[in-house]
Specification:
mainly alpha
Length: about 140
């Protein structure tokens, strides 16, 4: 494998999303630490290539989008745990997880924009957050 070859074919936004999920797994699932660390190393390789290739500036907006995406992924992860623990509130937690996934998809669309990949076919379309209060993310 050459250093300048991508290891994944996914867009920048999907790489960042996968990186945040693997980071969560590395912390919360200790039995797979080594495999998550290896995948993160490979993902970072591709992220670095894309940043260099596209001469992408690391801006405060980009960092805020990544932080918000990571936060949504953590909240969704915890809601999935709560769904398993509290069956009586399953639908409530499922609805909130779905709504937060809408914010997550908005963040991924913003990342597509940051990376110059905002083509209609790559956009995430499920960003419905109807009835979601108190979770507004001020990044536009």
């Amino acid at each position: 494998m050459a250093d300048k070859e991508r290891l994944f074919l996914t867009p920048f936004a999907e790489l960042i999303d996968r990186l945040t999920v693997d980071q969560i797994k590395e912390v919360l699932l200790p039995t797979g630490k080594e495999s998550y660390a290896e995948e993160m190393r490979r993902i970072c390789h591709d992220i670095d290539l894309l940043i260099e290739e596209r001469n992408m500036p690391i801006s405060s907006r980009l960092l805020r989008i990544v932080v918000a995406l990571a936060q949504m992924n953590v909240h969704i992860w915890y809601l999935k745990d709560r769904m398993q623990e509290d069956g009586e509130r399953y639908n409530e937690f499922l609805k909130l997880a779905h709504q937060l996934n809408g914010i997550r998809n908005r963040m991924k669309n913003l990342l597509l924009e940051e990376a110059g990949e905002r083509e209609k076919s790559a956009e995430r379309s499920n960003f419905n957050t109807d009835g979601l209060e108190g979770w507004d993310v001020s990044i536009s």
